[in-house]
Amino acid sequence: MNKKDVRKNVLAVRDAIPAEDRARYDASIRESVMGTEEYREADVILAYVSYKSEVDTTSLIRQALADGKNVFAPKVSGSEMEFWRISSLEDLREGYRGIREPIQSVAFSDWIFRHIGSKVMMWMPGVAFDKERHRIGYGGGFYDRYLTRLLQQSEQTDSTDQAQTQSGGFILTTAALAYSCQVLDRIPYEEHDVKPDLLVTEQEGG
Known about the structure:
The protein is 28% helix and 26% strand. The chain is of the alpha/beta class.
């Protein structure tokens, strides 16, 4: 199947998850994320704001703020995306395609240069994944472009392509959050597609 067909099929399955199961899966994913060393040590969380049938990040964002993390959420402008700092969920307003986006405050790209050495964890959405962590997004390419910019001057610190990447004076870990029904044996991908370091589902913590 091509990417378009995979998106259509996987979204239909994800949309059909019963509410009771979804709540249980979200709780399991939330527990797994907060249990990772990468989360515990993170100074910064780059958090997507969940929309429709995506893995819910509302409680995760609330917990990250309560834990004293510096939380940033994405805002789309044209063909590009930037993360802006939020202090609460009240800082979000309906924006691109109905997704809640932050009020522009402090951009992560500006903040990080004043906080060299920070440990950063990014939570990524997606439609479909495979067991090698290849990812199919929604077709806009926003995360691929954003991560490419972040990683242009980076050096891999782990030759196994796991966990942490050194980038411009900070340590970045990317974690995709998904339900297990979104993880297929194999999906179509291109070499330039950026793979998340971790894939967290209700069945697996990375």
